Amino acid sequence: MSDFSQEEKVAIAAVKRASILTSSVFEKLVKNETLVKGDKSPVTVGDFAAQAVISTILHNAFPNDPIVGEEDASDLRVESGKAMKDRIVALANEALTAPLTQGEDPAWGVGPGKERTADQILEAIDRGNYPGGSTGRMWTIDPIDGTKGFLRGEQYAVCVSLIVDAKVQVGVIGCPNLPVDPAEPSKGVGCIFTAVRGKGARQIAFSSSSPGADGATISLSIPQTLELKDLSFLESVEAAHSSHSFNDRVAAILNVQQPPTRMDSQAKYACLARGQGGAYLRMPTGVGYKEKIWDHAPGEILVTEAGGIVTDSRGEPLNFGLGRTLGENYGVIAAAKTIHGEILAAVQKAQNEAKAKV
Ligand SMILES: Nc1ncnc2c1ncn2[C@@H]1O[C@H](COP(=O)(O)OS(=O)(=O)O)[C@@H](OP(=O)(O)O)[C@H]1O
Ligand SMILES: [Mg+2]
Ligand SMILES: [Mg+2]
Ligand SMILES: [Mg+2]
């Protein structure tokens, strides 16, 4: 049985290259480089190019593994998408052909001379079309999680996971805009969070040459001594993505004294894993939306390996074996082991109150 160290190494390299790409795209992004998808959500040249880069690297390193990726290239294959396509191909090639860094292997399809054709870049994006399922290996890619945060210049995350037989085994989250040290934000931004099942969770500073090389890697553990009154719920910025008012009620039931911390993307899971906030609450705003596996798989393993528990509002683990989504939406509750049960009970109490009102 693999110890998944090679998978982690490849995923970190892919997330790092894609994160450098997305940071540089933000500096240069122009208005006509963003599309609105069928579900009204935004997607930028950065999302497409980052998915192409990650998919190319994963496919070169693990040619038999299927990929569940958020984006697909259909909008780029039509005449109206040509300008965007050209830009995406240039950005992806720039990221793929950048010089090799320590630990990277040219067999992963990276380094000088590794340009791809436009067709190969579109193919790499579309390789993310795997429907998912309960058996075998599969990767997930969310090339930019929190695209709205990315466009606002706030938090977003580049997210990759490896799922084997419905269980997440490796998770890597790149947060280009996240302070390396929350206590001293002036120390700089840009971190990668990584976890392997049974082997713990770590934070690596972007500036570090490779994991563990220069003391810029820290092991993550969620403090188990936090009192409920000191919690600050980590929650979505977008009110449409998770119910703020429901969280307010849960906070009142638990006598939480701190205001919530609103942050886009799986940076919330990453911050929880390194001891910020104390809990992540994501309850549905209405019926119908199904959470996507790429929005939670890396976060689930990161928090679990840091000593937390991630469940839905029934107290059940998230089920990554149902396809591209988590199935019916029962929300997400993530917190330290010591307080997860009390938060779950408060969520269920708030749900019962809401039911009694209708
Ligand atoms: N209605 C609804 N309910 C719940 N979740 C939704 C909904 N619509 C979208 N999404 C997904 O939310 C992802 C963004 O993550 P967050 O909600 O944590 O960030 S944010 O603060 O709201 O920006 C976002 O991920 P990205 O598309 O990768 O940005 C979506 O997959
Ligand atoms: Mg999206
Ligand atoms: Mg997402
Ligand atoms: Mg996304």
Can you offer a commentary on this structure?
This protein has 358 residues and is an alpha+beta fold. It has a domain at 228-356: D-Maltodextrin-Binding Protein, domain 2 (3-Layer(aba) Sandwich), CATH 3.40.190.80. It has nine helices and 14 strands. The chain has helices spanning 5-28, 45-61, 82-97, 118-126, 147-152, 244-253, 267-273, 297-305, 337-357, and strands spanning 34-36, 42-44, 67-69, 137-145, 157-164, 167-179, 189-196, 201-205, 217-220, 234-235, 261-262, 279-282, 308-311, 332-336. Strands 3-4-5-6-7-8-9 form a seven-stranded mixed beta sheet, with helices on both faces. A three-stranded antiparallel beta sheet has the order 12-14-13, with helices on both faces. The N and C termini lie far apart (52 Å). The model has no long low-confidence stretch (mean pLDDT 95). It binds 3'-phosphate-adenosine-5'-phosphate sulfate and magnesium ion (3 copies).
